[in-house]
Automatic annotation (TrEMBL), chains A, B, C, D, E, F:
EC number: 5.3.2.-
Keywords carried by this UniProt record: Isomerase
Every 4-oxalocrotonate tautomerase-like domain range: 2-61
Organism the protein comes from: Roseateles oligotrophus
Protein name, per record: Tautomerase
Membrane-traversing stretches: none
Lineage: Bacteria, Pseudomonadati, Pseudomonadota, Betaproteobacteria, Burkholderiales
Isomerase found in the keyword field: yes
EC supergroup of this enzyme: isomerase
InterPro entries attached to this UniProt entry: 4-OT, 4-OT-like_dom, Tautomerase/MIF_sf
Length: 73, 73, 73, 73, 73, 73
């Protein structure tokens, strides 16, 4: 009865990709720990880029800087 | 000062039902562990059915299959 | 298929009390939201008092101050 | 590589305030535990006031009572 | 920069199995969402069976009942 | 009433350092969002290095490789 929580930034993951993550994580837990898929939960949280920080800044700011760096080249 | 996080699929829980969960969990922690309700937090996360997986598939797919099974009968 | 996480300080909750919390929360979710108990998970995290802060200080420090206040009376 | 999750009620925190929280928490972990900011994640969850309970009631109800108490004065 | 939290009961998962889960989840996120493994965190929480409830009872009680059922056959 | 969860690897953070994190995060939330310290919770989870993965491997393996790299110089 594992519970898996996947947190990613909200940057366009499609329903199909999310279904693939759910299937892949469940298969992994069945294969490695012989868990019962019927009681294996996988929950995906998509977080706004304003609300996710790395390196002391938000991913929104990070993406903006990356864009400017590309344009600046 | 307990912190309780309730995660459910986003499938129509009403404000009244959520208030009942908050009251019920708080009362339980007061009764069983003599906790102070003023510093007992209860947080309810409602998760889209695309983002909740069980048995290797999303709840969206699961509900669809359940509907088809009903119609098929 | 709700997932409930209860976080409390590690201050002596007995197996019986934890069993009572598990039963109580499950019953509440069955009664209020008609959830299936067989796929209702309740997980209890017990946190060391050094690792739980409130009011800007650890619960260890808070309990110590409470003891001194009692003795000081 | 710390992971920090900040949960607050959804009551108008601005992008600038969230950026300040991200910067402040990251700086704190660098200063206190000498962590690498490049692998320090800070995630802010904003929770609807219907979904956050304290003292056995939702924050929505709590704010309403606070408003009435002000008006009643 | 995904953050994945895997919660399982503390029932003997070996370091090798945990390493396999970490590698498998990371590979999945790289393959499906093209994420950078260097900033993909996977955290495994092992929960005592007294502290994990399903069907309204602790896994400790559940395992005990399963044992008795085996012996009773 | 913010709830902050700080997850770090279990690599020797002292009670004093944890108290400093608790005080620092609380002060930040008071200053930036004018929150009430009395209902601001900060919880620190220390995770075994076998149970924390980054780059597809456990931190235990990562630290071992770092040691060998140092010795190899």
């Amino acid at each position: 009865m594992p519970f898996v929580n996947i947190q990613i930034t909200r940057e366009g993951a499609t329903p199909e990709q999310k279904a693939e993550l759910i299937a892949g994580v469940t298969e992994l837990l069945v294969r490695v720990l012989n868990k019962n898929p019927a009681t294996t939960f996988v929950i995906i949280d998509e977080v706004d880029t304003d609300n996710w920080g790395v390196g002391g800044q938000s991913v929104t700011a990070l993406r903006l800087a990356q864009e400017r760096a590309k344009v600046g080249k």
